[in-house]
Design goal:
Layout: H1 3-65, H2 68-73, H3 95-98, H4 105-154
Helix pairs in contact: 1-4
Amino acid sequence: MDRNSVHKFCDIEDEVNSILDENIEIATRTKNQLFFQGQQIENVDLKLTNIEYFTNKAKEIINRMSSFFHRFRTSPVSYTENVVDSQIQMSEIDESKLFVSGETTLSKLNRLKNIGLQMGEELDEQNIKLDKMDLDVDKNNSYFKKNVEKINKIF
């Protein structure tokens, strides 16, 4: 190999490493956004649980209202005010972890592959949570409709 060929090979390797560094940064940010999205899904699921709790309490109140004598026989409906309210804070990307000095092209490709696998796992978990939430929304909708029907009967 002559000197010119070696210089061109080094230039190509530098270009490939530069592209890999950019892709690792993009993949890491995307993965962090997916985790943030997962936290939001969990918070929505928690809110659905709270809605279900209050809907059930509303059902109890409506049942108490439905009959004059029923109100005398049943105790007042009590509820807890310590409903869990969630807060989300997205962690910042640590730029020092994105670029490892002296990292080989193969190890960069391997790191990029691992980030992609983590993103796939996170998306699978989120799909499961979203399916469960869909069922919970349908269930809460049914509760609301039944409560409205009971209220209409009372009045």
